[in-house]
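Reviewer comment 2.1 asked that we show a complete input and output for one of the modelled complexes. We chose the ketopantoate case, as it is the one discussed in the main text.
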Amino acid sequence: MTIAILGAGAIGQLIAHQLANANVAPLLLVKPDQATSSNDQTTPFVLEQQDQHQHQQHQFEVISTGDYLTATILPDIELLIVTLKAYQVVPAVSALLPKLSSKCHILLLHNGIGSHLELQPQLDGLGLSLGTTSQGALKLGPRTVRHTGEGMSQFGHCSGPELSAELRESLLRAIPNSSWVEQIMPALWQKLAVNAVINPLTALNNVPNGALTAARYQPQIDAILSELQQVAWLEHIRLDADKLASTVRQVMVLTAENFSSMHQDVLHKRRTEIDYINGYLVKRAAAHKLALPINQQLVSQINRLSPAAA
Ligand code: KPL
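Response of the prediction step:
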């Protein structure tokens, strides 16, 4: 069984360790400029557990994206787990597609929604699944990650042939608190709500996630969620408003000390995932001839602070 992970960021490396613990160590496909590149096949990857006293080491086969167009192993990949940022998915997967066999199944796992719609026209019959995770991971070095939060993971079918039962079982066995759901879109929308509130507000106000529990943010949070609910309804996604608001608040409390990924992206002047979070809401709303002024304003404010799309 050949599983590969495209993107050796914090979540990619965490899942690689979890798969290795379940005896299905994946290949890692990484960018050539990363210190994790294929030139170094000897330095182990380290997983630091939450209590910071326990460490695990695994050796993964690393293929740099600079070499992978010639890599003979690519046609053997049966499951490609893509843990890149949302905006990196289409260019990176498109470059790989000519080398993948028709039996390869792709699983996208990132914040936000929308990359699957851009990728689908190119898939030529390959199976596609989508997932969401609230596991926390922090990259401490090129080959070191810390598992910062247990969290839950959900996966589900999107299009084309379904993932084989064998691979599905391996994935669920490897990733703690994970499940395969009949309908993945409602789960993605719930995570979208969390990110649509926490990510831009923490980035714009330069605060950690927990700060958003202060009363002064509540009107803005309610407005973001109310617009999200309107689009979800038009998209036939049924979400319970009270449950959504309490989930968002629960994440703020559980991750109170953390700085959101968008906060960090803005701080380090990196491109953010806003186009696939609040931007996705605005786009879907426009398709229904609906305007979302609050979410649109957040998109504009974040885009003024971070590098624009290429
Ligand atoms: O997913 C996250 C992110 O930072 O992108 C949350 C859940 C908001 C945790 O920080």
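The first helix runs from residue 10 to 21. We note this here for comparison with the apo prediction described in Section 3.2.
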